[in-house]
Specification:
Strands 1, 2, 5, 6, 20, 21, 22, 23, 24, 25, 26 and 27 form a twelve-stranded mixed sheet that branches. The chain has a six-stranded antiparallel beta barrel with strand order 7-10-11-14-13-12. The two termini are 37 Å apart. The relative contact order is 0.25. The chain is mainly β and 405 residues long. The chain has five helices and 27 strands.
């Protein structure tokens, strides 16, 4: 689904001060939906992506619902802060530090979220091969939270705006993903949070989401191990079909049914493994930000500038923007050559410290634009992070998930 929007914007402002302020009446703006609600369900999701040599991860393509924003029109519209500006420090950066670097060291916090439209069996009844239907990915990032278990991305990478079903299926986050490799494990989503106006009305000004994830999982064995029938039945009754297998084998001249399950090992908490960006809201428009993401696809002129395989960055100052076609009157934009596919959910990081690879998350890409009409994307846009955004973030940041291995 691709939508063409009218865009307007204006540059203004300086970097805002860093004072944490609790926004008023934030709780009523929060909407949440369950993803994998039990340990067995979560391991089942992990098995879909990790087994068969991570075939479903490798087969996934960039999510192609990018919003293409087009227009040369410039207006005086854009966002305004609803409370005082505030920040939440990054993991490990709670005490102020300073550093300088001439190079851009890419953050470990960024990775890809994967999801699908369901699954189908392309194996046999007793030894199935589960294949994800329409597997896709977006960019996402780890952010600070009380239990170091929170991921931020675009709302359209969590909530299914194409089918109007609640959320994407089989949702996982893989930091540092590269061609089937999961260096810090796979993190299954437990609960998704967004703004009520996005959940109900698909309000573009609120296109962001925060997802709590369980501890990471890695395959503990190269092949499924034998289990008892009682264990097998428990998996089946609790949605663990991807995790289990059964087959007939000849033992002492008799055919018997044997039961198997994939075993996992705990990879630890997300924030302990890769860190987590801080969070900033109600910042003045006009500050400089780095944008980190996995752009893919082509520019309108057909040039395929990005493969989506490796993490890329761009840099610029934010400016106010509008996109009325998605009910978005308070967006921010930044000059960037990122193409839309794959870059949805890219992290906008303010005050990024190269040496520590940390800063403050202050936006996520929800669309791209060719503002000068030369058939090359030159602008990315994000919802403006205000006090209501902080309220959604805070609701997610205080929830425990734990280990499921």
């Amino acid at each position: 689904m691709k939508r063409t929007l009218a865009l307007g914007g204006v540059a203004a402002g300086l970097l805002a001060s860093a004072l944490v302020t609790q926004p008023a009446n934030a709780a009523g703006d929060v909407a949440s939906d369950p993803l994998a609600t039990t340990g067995i369900a979560a391991k089942n999701v992990a098995a879909l992506w990790l087994t068969e040599n991570a075939a479903n991860l490798i087969a996934a393509t960039p999510y192609d619902v990018e919003t293409t924003v087009t227009s040369k029109h410039v207006s005086t519209g854009g966002p305004t802060a609803d409370t005082k500006p505030g920040v939440v420090p990054a993991i490990g950066d709670e005490k102020a530090t300073t550093s300088t670097s001439k190079n851009v060291n890419l953050p470990k916090t960024t990775g890809k979220v994967f999801f699908s439209d369901g699954f189908e069996n392309k194996g046999t009844k007793y030894w199935p091969k589960w294949v994800a239907k329409n597997p896709h990915w977006c960019t996402a990032t780890s952010v600070q939270s009380n239990y170091r278990n929170l991921v931020a991305t675009a709302g359209s990478c969590v909530y299914n705006t194409e089918t109007n079903s609640a959320t994407m299926q089989n949702w996982v986050f893989v930091p540092g993903y590269y061609q089937g490799k999961t260096p810090w494990g796979i993190y299954v989503g437990k609960q998704a949070f967004t703004h009520y106006d996005y959940d109900v009305y698909e309000d573009g000004d609120r296109n962001y989401a925060f997802v709590t994830v369980y501890n990471g999982l890695q395959l503990g064995t190269a092949a499924p191990v034998e289990i008892t029938q009682a264990e097998y039945d428990t998996y089946q009754k609790n949605g663990g079909g991807f995790t289990t297998r059964r087959k007939y084998e000849k033992v002492d001249g008799k055919w018997v049914t044997k039961y198997y399950a994939w075993k996992f090992k705990d990879a630890g908490r997300l924030g302990d493994n890769v860190g987590g960006q801080g969070f900033a809201y109600n910042q003045k428009v006009g500050q400089s930000v780095f944008v980190f993401g996995y752009p893919s696809g082509s520019h309108p002129d057909g040039n395929a500038a990005y493969s989506g395989k490796t993490l890329k960055w761009s840099y610029g100052k934010t400016f106010g923007a509008k996109a009325s076609a998605i009910k978005a009157e308070e967006l921010v934009g930044v000059k960037s050559s990122f193409t839309g596919e794959g870059s949805l959910g890219s992290a906008w990081i303010a005050q990024y410290k190269n040496a520590r690879r940390l800063g403050y998350l202050n936006g996520v890409t929800i669309g791209v634009s060719d503002t000068d009409g030369n058939k090359r994307y030159d602008t990315s846009v994000s919802a403006y992070f205000d006090g209501e955004t902080y309220g959604v973030y805070k609701a997610a940041a205080n929830l425990w998930t734990g280990s499921i291995a």
